[in-house]
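Deliverable D2.4 — example input (structure tokens):
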């Protein structure tokens, strides 16, 4: 199987409505290194006996949490699709834990894919630069799919899941972790709307999806919800790291020339995250797992 994919700007036409997401991740590539030198772009999952002052073990525990609900430990072979992979750190980690499996990692950002291939060139991961609404895989060729804080970028999540269901083998699972609105945005308070827009729009997220709608996603009738786990408090210790890192990064950017608009917006969103996480009346973080029927 081919283990390389050379990213090209031609993969993403300039007229693409998702070009803004690509621009955001291309421009903030180095900023994320403040969060994780290993390349993790997500929140960490705390469990007892993990040191809440050290991010990396919590970030990698989130990887394990997803792999657990995909059921990877029970597989002797198979292919896993990491859709919205960032710089490939989660797939790289998975390829080390499960060397018998094939990992396919996709990002819409050419910069992220180029960085992933440079960082993890020795790992058993195939990288794809493209849009997860149109997957380069054959029907029923993938054993498991996951979206780690990435489906929030989609304005057409059902279309994305229809495509994931197409490539998923019968009995396979799709696991996603993300923040969700607990009610329609217009039914929330003005303060909450300001906070959630401050996070979403500055992270190139059109708007977080509504939890009740997400629970009813079916992938054109092929998927059923089998796991629904609220895990917001588990993210708290890693989210608290954002406070001092945002301050340090602000000082770093203030002394730097050529800072882009997306870099400032990314910093603004990071500053809002703790307030958003505390607004639990309107916002929760969930793992949702869907299974494809036989």
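Example output (designed residues):
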């Amino acid at each position: 199987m081919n283990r390389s994919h050379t990213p090209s700007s031609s993969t993403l036409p300039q007229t693409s409505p998702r070009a803004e997401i690509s621009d955001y991740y291309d421009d903030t590539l180095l900023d994320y290194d403040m969060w994780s030198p290993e390349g993790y772009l997500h929140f960490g999952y705390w469990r007892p006996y993990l040191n809440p002052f050290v991010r990396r073990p919590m970030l990698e525990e989130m990887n394990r949490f997803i792999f657990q609900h995909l059921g990877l430990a029970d597989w002797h072979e198979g292919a896993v699709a990491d859709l919205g992979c960032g710089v490939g750190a989660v797939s790289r980690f998975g390829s080390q834990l499960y060397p018998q499996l094939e990992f396919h990692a996709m990002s819409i950002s050419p910069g992220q894919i180029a960085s992933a291939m440079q960082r993890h060139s020795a790992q058993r991961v195939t990288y794809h630069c493209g849009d997860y609404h149109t997957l380069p895989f054959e029907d029923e060729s993938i054993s498991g799919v996951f979206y780690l804080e990435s489906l929030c970028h989609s304005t057409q999540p059902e279309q994305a899941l229809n495509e994931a269901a197409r490539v998923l083998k019968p009995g396979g699972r799709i696991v996603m972790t993300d923040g969700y609105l607990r009610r329609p945005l217009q039914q929330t308070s003005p303060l909450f709307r300001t906070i959630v827009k401050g996070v979403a729009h500055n992270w190139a997220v059109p708007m977080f999806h509504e939890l009740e709608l997400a629970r009813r996603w079916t992938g054109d009738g092929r998927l059923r919800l089998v796991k629904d786990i609220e895990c917001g408090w588990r993210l708290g210790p890693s989210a608290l790291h954002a406070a001092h890192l945002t301050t340090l990064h602000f000082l770093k950017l203030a002394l730097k020339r050529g800072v882009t608009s997306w870099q400032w917006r990314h910093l603004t969103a990071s500053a809002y995250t703790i307030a958003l996480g505390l607004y639990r009346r309107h916002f929760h973080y969930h793992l949702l797992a869907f299974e494809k029927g036989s």
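Strands lie at 79-83, 102-107, 125-129, 142-148, 168-181, 223-230, 283-292.
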